[in-house]
## 1
Amino acid sequence: MSIVNNIAVVIPSYKVRAHVLDVINKVGPEISRIYVVDDSCPEQSGLFVEEFCSDPRVKVLKHERNLGVGGAVMTGYKAAIAEGMEVIVKLDGDGQMDPDLIMDFVEPILSGEADYTKGNRFFDLEKVRVMPRARLFGNAVLSFMAKLSSGYWNLFDPTNGYTAIHRDVLLHLPLSKISERYFFETDILFRLNTLRAVVVDVPMEAKYGDEISNLKISSIVGEFLAKHVRNFFKRIFYNYYLRDMSVASIELPFGCLMLLFGAVFGSYNWIKSIETGLQSSAGTVMLSALPLIVGMHLILAFLGHDIRSVPDRPFHRGKSRVANKLEKNNAE
């Protein structure tokens, strides 16, 4: 297959010396450039690639200190933009992601159907069985949290790092504000939603071999929860109050207030009834129950509107002039 587009692959490299050369060798000839980002790897994987890889497409980028997977990917993104790459694919160097699927991630972007594509390991239920149960449960929880914080209710497997993005979208993202470590994949979804970019899941099969994950679930649960809550409130403010106003902008605050009032008023009278031994009147019960019911209804109505508001018009179509202008300004 000949090179028909400026497609680049970014491979963050940290403790993947045993697998990275095999990953590079499997990258097809349709790829113009391969950026291997040595994220201050203790195994000196960047030097290892320079010494033992003869592929002319490979360019090794090195960090003086460890920035995390997000920081490594963004270094690759910046290099790809500087060299005029059109679509940039992020591929892990541990061998869990099949390089043969690269064009499956690229084609929806080149055809104008998507701005960003990401892998989903949960399409084939038979193959899902090989995944560790702890990872399945963790992914389900993280996926729900990501739907709330990012607004992409149609996506699953948010921590999947097999992704592709169009350069015009990248030029509009605040790369310096995106999380540099393991929250990177989810944080970029939040940033993409603020652009109303179209994100599409791509079915893929997970591979589990002798590689060791650097991600420790117990150490990131609290951090992920805090960042998801932060992104949720920022997204709601941006989309429903700063950039636009709709019925949903009223439903959410009124729903929360009524739910809170019903819960507090009902709890107070329930405790008072227990202490005094007197049964609450029908009016008191109704005054507690009605706000709870109406508040829940308003919140569900808001969620329904939010789910229907998933971006469906690609951002990068017709953005070439704006992107070129931004690129020129950045260069200056």
## 2
Amino acid sequence: MHAVSDDAPVLHDVMPWSVRPLRIGRGWPMAPDANTLRDRWALFTAARGEAERDALLHPTRTRGLHTRVGQLPGHRTPTTALAREDGRCPEPVLIQHGAHDRQWLIPDHRLIDAARPELWRVLDDQQIFAVEQAYLPEAHEPAVAFSALLPDGRSPAGRPGRIRPLFRQPGGRDPNLAPGLLGLLSARLAAEVTARDVLAWVAAAARPAPGGCEVPFPADPGDWRSGVALGGRLLWLHTRGARLADPAEGRDPAAPRLPGGSRPYVRAPLPAAPGQEELEYDREQRELRIGAGRISPVAPAAWDRRVGGVRVLEAWWERRTAPGAPGSLEALRPPRWTRHCTSDLLEVISVLTLLAESDGARDALARSLADRPGRTITARALRDAGVLPVPAARRRPASVLDHREEGPDGQFALV
């Protein structure tokens, strides 16, 4: 439990239900492209001897060739022991890897040490996940990342944060907020406040703190409106246009793009099979260099963007070029650099650039709230109104009674 503060409420109380990050336990079920996963699966199921298959699996304390485990919610995958598996690869799904990367994952519960089924049950086209970032006192980084995809919760800083879905049930039902918070904010701000408004405010105003991410709520309606507008744009950027789209506000329901003059383009073809050491940045030319390939313009702010103290673009690159251990399934990599890889890189550069352009507005909002401490809604005010403390039941997942999930060896379980 975080200590209760008489200053700003903490995200732990604002969004009380949280889930620990996924723990896959082995590298090969995740890759930058789906075809590589299918090829790895084919190699795994082609191994007939149990010793060879065991070495490829990389068994752990919770997952081995004979582990009995049920399906992941929403995925009709086999539940027989992996020692006997000889079928096709389950259809890979796209997930959020860390704050800004996207990877494909084989959604097979037999391969994932801790898949967090409660997150899969509430994953749909209404959901938005908030991922609290590890606290780094020396880093000037946003306290929370957001995703429309299922996030793995990875943190380069080491200590992973918690994953907090906006909704506790599918279909945008049962907001994961402290009971009474929406009513209190609506009354104090003289406006109808929705769950998405609160999440947008979190995106704009949340700040890292040693005792947990703090969320200072404003008592001034003008501050609230400007913060929610800024946060809506940030959520749109983090989800790459999948959520909070509003064409009237310049947020199209598609991947965010920079204006023509600052939009990155491939100026020289990228290598067909680039190496891990070929990425470099020319700050003066505002140019990303990959071997003989050139991408520009790339703003210094995009290159310098860090999460958990790690440069985002370097981590993205390493994930696609670092060789796997010889003889392992991770060593099976895409044979060539694809057009999709280039498109994804350009999209990440654009999102990082646009996020950096919003940093000034975030800082201005933080200064405004800090300069007027008497015009914020404190944790004490939430306690006086009965919003806090949060009931223990709100920190646990909701029951989902309309799902049937197959357990080990074809048995069904109710959840």
## 3
Amino acid sequence: MRYMPHTAGERAEMLGKIGVGSIDDLFADIPKEARLDDLLKLPLHASEMEVEKNFRTLASKNLSPYSTPCFLGAGAYQHHIPSVADHIIQRSEFLTAYTPYQPEISQGTLQALFEFQTQVALITGMEVANASMYDGATSCAESILMACRVTRRKKAILSGNLHPHYRETARTALQFTEFSASELPPVVEGAEAFDEYISEEIACVVVQNPDFFGRLQDLTSLAEKCHAVGALLVVVVNEVVSLGAVMSPGEMGADIVAGEGQSIGVPLSFGGPYVGLLATRQKFVRQMPGRLCGQTVDQDGQRGFVLTLSTREQHIRREKATSNICTNAGLCSLAFTIHMSLLGEVGFTKLAKLNHGEAVSAAEALEEIEGVEVVNASFFNEFTLRLPKNAADVVEKLAAKGVLGGVPVSRLIPDQPELENLLLVAVTETCSTADLEKLVSSLKEVL
């Protein structure tokens, strides 16, 4: 039975109030050829039990990363999430909480956001962080816009080894603005050369670390070159667990850090929702987009938390707002904060070391297969393999053997024949020795 809360009499009364004779009159402005004459070709109603059974049947067709050896990465990583994180975020105080405009009744939510900001600032090596963005890609795009506002310049340089989805999102965000971005080609081997592009005309250089191919790099020199011409360095971090093992972007001289926090507390979930991170220097805080939660004291001198520097368009700033993103990924940022709190500094570092160690073991085992080469000499928990066959075909054959063997580079950077044999392989703490053995034996068979 369809859920129709209003009776025929009530609907007639509402139509009468607004002065139309029928439901069809409400759609008079829609051309007749654009309207449906009949129902959509979809299944009709069924019982709850039948619907559940149908969806379980559909779900069984998926090869789940949680039930099979999984080496997928390329911006979305499978990590273990403690069950307590899911338990806490489902408490009604958090799950039903909305925008904390009234601090006197939102202290719990505000404090959680404050702790989140503190954690993000600490791991990125920056001085201030916002209360999260939608995801890493939108955070990257907002960082470019922020850099243009700070420098009052209109052009950004995007690394060729920035994740293709992030480049595409930046392209979309900039297309109807006065700002633009030059995109460099991907560089699989060797270092990227930025010198000829860095000038007093650019607002920022955007690089990723580890980059799209998994390569780690020291960005200190690049930061110095940017600063010498008054430009900013924006560093993107796709795999936030890496910050437990490598030098932070802030230590290398980054001015803005845009990241994806999915690896901590947030499941893969077929691509979202995720949680974007954005951190910067204190001197740029008034140009930072999104929400900022601050600590203060009440009239009795007790510690309290409030939203502050609300330079969003729905407040007084209007067209001068720093961003049109009017919210934060509240539940995902809470999950991040809970997981990070459970890990602590020591646990976060141990998790990072475990990831790197497992990845090194995997790279060594895979490179022993005839015809297989690890392209990048340095990496955290993700590396690029060059196979003797088309990587997309190999992945399909691995999947048929019950192994999610990685992400073909050609799936994200198409129409470049020189990249068709490259395979991104990510190895996290969830990959067991048996999983790696299954990948190695299956890859040998496929090749």
## 4
Amino acid sequence: MFTGIVEELGEITAVEDLGDASRFRLRGPVVTEGAKHGDSIAVNGVCLTVVETGDGEFTADVMAETLNRSSLGALAVGSRVNLERPMAVGGRLGGHIVQGHVDGTGRIVSRKPSEHWEIVTVSVPADLTRYVVEKGSITIDGVSLTVVDAGPDHLTVSLIPTTLALTTLGRKQPGDPVNLEVDVLAKYVERLLGAGQPPTAARTEGK
């Protein structure tokens, strides 16, 4: 489990095409300290398994499903990425509960700078908008953020200078893809509220 508090702005140093997958090599001396084969590291909000580590870098295999359903497929050598290690037991939950399981991708729609922060608008896929609420939590490229406005097909967030400087969100431009993970609690609530309800076909039978 992660918290959406990015520890390090890393960089893709190599990409190897494996046919139905890709192997990424990433530079991240902070997150690789003490890391070993089989550990997890979130890359732009996607939980990946460490294959090898050395000299402040690590490799991870990314299967086709992940490449197709996240923005990782658009990464290339030189791309900057947000990195986070899993939260240690007993650690502080600085953001919110983040699984590292991307629900879909959106795109930066616009950026509106102000003196002390920046308002960023992000498109949201139609099947995810029901999980996005004003003042609720959202994970964008692995960054835990609070929703300022929840529109019918978009959301807005306010980014403070620290977030702009230390994560990829300070570099993303309109049109760039971003990974979205909605609050898992919202999905569980939806599932529980629907528990015990007959299928739609049965409810409408005879009407």
